[in-house]
What we know:
By secondary structure, the protein is α/β, with parallel strands linked by helices. Helix content is about 50%, strand content about 10%.
Amino acid sequence: MNAGKNKTYLRALAGEAVTPPPVWLMRQAGRYLPEYRELRSGVKNFLDFCYTPDLAVEVTLQPLRRYGFDAAILFSDILVIPDALGQKVAFREGEGPVLTPIRSADDLKGLGMDRLHDHLAPVYETVSRLASSIPETTALIGFAGAPWTVATYMVEGRGSKDHAAARTWAFDGDGFADLITLLTDATAEYLIRQADHGAEALQLFDTWAGVLSPSQFGRWVIEPTAEIVARIKAAHPDIPVVGFPRGAGIMYETFVRETGVDGVSIDNSVPPSWAARVLQPMCTVQGNLDNMSVIAGGPAMEAEVRGILAALSGGPFIFNLGHGILPETPPQNVARLVDIVRGA
Length: 344
Ligand code: CP3
């Protein structure tokens, strides 16, 4: 009955302590792989790359072929949502994303959901093709950015260190609540469509959750996430949802209790023993190797991996990094990492 029976990633998300634990890495498809760089060099515009199913499918599969990860993550980006809502998004070499900033209720008038699904149709096509082409023991993860993190890019107009414009607007404006409501609606619909097309689990990336004060964290991270989880569950009661409120600190506990997520991805500042004691009784924990240790490799990486495994393997656990893999990472260190997790 359970189609996920032979998929260790889904068993872990259903609450089972799987030995050895399933392993995949955030940003597992990307520039640290020469085969990714080769395909990527043929397309100027990064979003066009995401919107071309032939390329997105191939790039999703590349890390599976090398490492046999237990989950595949759809290849796309969190900024397809602002793009689909009508905000201009460009990726510039060496500079990251550049958007025309939204700073007022007036700026919001140019955005809307009317073209959302048409615009994102190539992403849904990629999900469908992946669902029928990944190995049968591999789970397919769909994803989106969480409203707060996507809003920081929409408001700042670029990546930023302190997110000052978004954090200030969040304190004083009705317009900001409208932006979050729009993103909550669009993100819920987008993720439900990914599930309709064959995604077996969904992850919400809230990369900048940790910059908010506790009250703002409740309002802009917990509330929209809880709403999105509820809407997904109404449409797809059995699909697991994983939250990644990076940098949440002690707020991880409140986040898990109040959002209804099935799993939480933790960053590398969280002691694995604390996560085992406080979070694992409530949900599956995913994490949390320091991505720099995979660049370093060797005995230092091995010691970190073993420490995480020792702390978290007794409960429902998915091995991952604390944040995405970096372009400088030697591919052979990833192979070693997977071997250690699998008991070598
Ligand atoms: O995990 C995967 O393999 C799936 C693909 C994926 C990408 N981005 C591809 C990508 C996922 C899940 C993301 C999420 C994402 N995108 C986040 C949240 C997670 C995190 O890492 O914090 C954020 C904040 C973004 C926004 C984004 N996309 C930025 C800031 C940048 C530029 C900085 C950088 O790393 O280059 C991107 C570009 C991007 N997204 C690349 C990839 C592989 C590199 C672009 C390239 O190939 O030129």
